[in-house]
Amino acid sequence: MAPSMPPSSHDSKQDVLDMLRELAELTQIDEADPQSFRVRAYETAAQAIAAQASDLGRLTVEELREIHGIGKSTADKIRELLETGRVRKLEELRAKHPPGVVALLRIQGLGPKSVRRLRAELGVDSIDSLRDALARHAMRGVAGFGAKAEQKLAESLARLEAQGSLERTPISVALPLATRIVERLRQVPGVSHAAYCGSLRRFAETIGDVDVVVAASDPAPVMDALVSLRVVERVLGRGDSKASVVTHRGTQIDLRVVGAHQLGAALLYFTGSKTHNIELRQRALARGMTLNEYALSELDGGRVVASETEEQIYAALGLPWIPPELREGAGEIAAAERGALPARIGDVIGDFHVHTTVSGDGRSTLEEVVAAARARGTRVLAITDHAEGTRSGVGREALLEQRARIRALRAELGDELLLLHGVELNIGPNGELDYDAEFRRGFDWCLASVHDRFELDRAAQTRRIVTAMRDPAVRMIGHLSARMIGARPPIDVDLDAVLAAAEETGTALEVNGALPRLDLSADALRRARERDVTFVLTSDAHHARELERVGFAARNAERAWVGPDRIANAWPAERLCAWVRREPREIA
Description:
By secondary structure, the protein is an alpha/beta fold. It is built from 24 helices and 17 strands. The strands form 4 sheets. The chain has a 7-stranded parallel β-sheet, with helices on both faces. Strands 2-4-7-6-5 form a 5-stranded mixed β-sheet, sandwiched between helices.
């Protein structure tokens, strides 16, 4: 095997972040305490490393310890990883708590303490063994678990299974992983292009495996680079132009290396759903051609018609280029032939869900967030720190102090950026909101979200959201389903009733771009687009660098065929600002 390339500074930083986050996850299982000293130390260290611009590979243990939040033990582990590619403590924890055990934490109602208890008393060490224990009603004999707790676990498991996410990798894990692998492979000499494909390129919310396509003059160095990545646990197979590996977290990566002249055909083949690809092949056959992962060719004689780019292949089939997010076999080919594909969303000029350090979970100051928004060309920015009804929320005095700072900053910004003082209100179990009506009216922008009581039944969940919509101060409902993909099931709501209330009250619905949420989901968006409802794409940023997540919200909306005319912050600036400044409506 050829020697692997040394990791770049960016790659080293990602290696360290992966190591610290995995240590935090496994340590909370090991110590049965998500708030233990070691867990918090690893989490604090990860936040510190994420904010570092320095090349970590050049820092000694002493220099690492000078970074606020990095202690000696953590600094030693960072150097151990950077020098040897492994961390003994992490390997011990992986052996002690394999992926099946870690997966149990995705079930709502199971924390580190309960996982330890079930593992010790019933041998529950995977989703399969949890299913078996539930089927046998074995949990009822375990302290802390009764019939009611058992039923709630069974319901939570069933709802996750219904989403098809338990055996798949959430996009919040898959996309950063794939992006990092692609960036690494692009550095290999002889590589002209590298991209992730498959359902991930279609922006599916869960991924079976990650497909990577690379165009290179020599496949061998590309595969050497893949198998030598620190995230790789084992190699499943390797041939002349393809390889499959599994990461430490259990995600399979399938690599295909092609020549530059075959790139378009490979990207097309490895991106489209089975139905989309079948329809394209049938269309090719009807025109006397054949389509595969190498080329679009004539049936008679085999002359290559197109292969270098996707655009060339689509054009040869009489179609415009179809965005990857639409390639699901859901009528997109017929729509493309009619010229009826939805318009791309384009520039998103506002963000209406952004947190700062005023929230307990915010990581960037107001000034840092505003600077990042200006750099992105944002025209309207709503600062929406958590209200007092959540653990991360704050009281009136802190928000009034922030309001004064925002008004002073607004005067400096002039017409460049409309800076709004907003708040994210918590929706109580009966639809009650934080603060009193008069205080709420003092904000430029109020969104309201569900952050607790996820177990309420459909009628109660629907009623609480509709009640919040009827408050004149509430302009938008945030992350409607409150789901965390692959971890927390969505709350049970009557979506049609919520959409009807949104139409009646003029309340916008958020499309949250945080990858663990992507809420509204694409399925909900498809239903909602048939109603007279306004959508707002947001980042739900808790750090200035997360403002880019509004782009994920746009991809999710495009996947659901939602056009820019339905999205307030994709409108021209004058129309958007007029919508923001409209007078609050009175709802009986």
